[in-house]
Amino acid sequence: MEVSVEGLLEGKEELLEQLQSFFKEEELEKLARESRFVERSTSRLSGWMFLQLHLLMESNGKEFSLSDMCQEVSERHGVELTKQSLDERFNTFAVGFMRQCYQLLLRQVLDVGQQQAAPPHFSRVIVTDSTSFQLPGQLAAFYRSNGGSTSGASVKLHQQYELLQGSILRLEVRDGKENDTLFLQDLDYEQAGKELHILDLGYYKPRHLQALDSAGGFFISRYKTGTRLYIDRGAGKLVLLDWKQFLGQLEEGSSCLPEVYLGKGKEKLKVRLVAQKVPVEVAERRAAKQQRKQANQSKSGRYSWQTSEAKKQLMGYNIYITNTCLEQLNPLQVQLYYRLRWQIELLFKIWKSIMEIDKVGRMSIFRFECYLYSRLMVILLSTQVQRMLKGYLERQLEDFELSEWKVMKHLKKRYSSFARHSAKAAEP
C-alpha cells in the first residue's frame, strides 16, 4: 500500500483519502463474522458501526457512557438501541473483534513504514519501553498491580518504536504486574540483522542480548548493577572486572573498555563498556531516590532491603554496554543514541496528557478492553498522520522540526470532526 503525502497540506480531502485505505467496510465485516461479534445477517449493529462508535469517541472512557453510545449510533446510522442491548454486545467476541481491527491497522502501518530507505550502519533503530497506569479496582481480577497501585489494578503497555521512520512496530497490552522481560520472549530474533536496539533496564536480560548478537543485531543498554563482567588477562583467562580500579581511572568525560565479557558459563558475550561520570548533583539525586526506595521497602516489613556498596559507588556514573564496534559508534555516540529514549518517553507523556489513555472509569472488563484497543488505534492513526506531515514538510522546508506535542494536541482537537467526515465519506 503506497501512501503519497504530496499536496498533503492542500486540504483535508487528501489526508482523508489516505487514511480511509486503512479500513475497508467489507474487510471489517469479514473480521466481525470471523470473530463471532456478528453472527446473524439481521444484526442491527455491524462491525463497521461498532468500530466507528469507538474511534469517534469525543471524550475519554471515563465520561463516555452507554447512553452516549446509543445516541451516537442513532444519530449516525439511524439504529435505535437500548442501553441493555448495547451492553450485551460487549463480550469476549467484541474484544476479539477490536483486537483484530487493531492488529490489522498495525500491519498496514508497518507496511507503510517499511518503504523507507535504510541508514548506512543500521537497518533500523528500535527503542523498547513501557508505561503503566492504574485501573478501577473492579478490574483487579483481570489486570493485577505490581504493588504501587492504590486500586490494586493496573495495566502495562509495551511499545517498540522505530526512531528513524517514526513508526510503532509493536504495541501490546499486558498485566501491570508482569515482568518486562516476558515481553521479549515473542521477539523474532531472525529478523534482527543490522537492527540497533536501545533497551531500558527493565528489559535487561543477557539471554536476549546474546540472541540479538547471534542474529547479527546490535544493542545499547544500561549496565545492570550486580551483573558480572569479565576481562581477558591473556591465553583465554577471564577474571572479574575490578570496578574500583576501572572507575578510579575515569576522569571527567567518558571512558571505554573495548573488550569485556558478559554472561554465565562458557558462552560469554563480548561487549564494550562505556562509562561517563555524572555531575555531583545528579549522583546526589540518585542516592536520595535510592534511600527513599529503601525506606519504603523496609516499612513494608517483607524483608530487610539494603543498598550494596557497589551500587552506591556506581550511582556516580552512567554505564552502558553495547556490542557495536568503534567504527559504528564511538563512546560519545553510544551515550547520545541511548538518550534517544526520551522520544518514546515523550510519546507516553502525550498518550496520558493529551490522549488521556489512562483516564478509565468504572466499566466492565469487556468495555474496558474494547475502549483500550480503540485508543491504541487512535494513537496509531495519529502517529501515522504525524509521520506523513513530517515527511512532507522536511522535503519542502530546510531546517524544519515538527513538535510531536503540538501535532498531537491539534490532532486530538480535530480528530472528532475529521473522523466523522471520513466515516460519512466511506458510507455507500
Portion in beta strands: 15-25%
The helix content is: 40-55%
Average pLDDT taken over every residue: 77
Number of strands: 10
Largest sheet: 10 strands, mixed
Structural class: alpha+beta
In N-to-C order, the SSE pattern is: HHHHHHEEEEHEEEHEEHHEHHHH
Spatial sequence of strands, sheet with the most strands: 3-2-1-4-5-10-9-8-6-7
What sort of overall outline do the alpha carbons produce when their principal axes are compared?
Answer: elongated
**Counting H and I runs of at least 4 residues, what is the number of helices?**
14
Poorly predicted regions = 1-16, 113-118, 418-428
Radius of gyration: 25 Å
Intertermini distance: 23 Å
Top keywords for this entry?
ten-stranded mixed sheet; 14 helices; 428 residues; 10 strands
How is the topology of this model organized?
Blueprint lengths: L11 H9 L4 H10 L12 H9 L10 H12 L5 H7 L2 H22 L10 E11 L19 E9 L4 E9 L19 E5 L6 H9 L3 E5 L6 E4 L5 E3 L2 H6 L5 E9 L6 E9 L2 H21 L8 H6 L2 E6 L8 H8 L3 H12 L11 H32 L7 H23 L2
Helix pairs in contact: 1-14, 2-6, 6-13
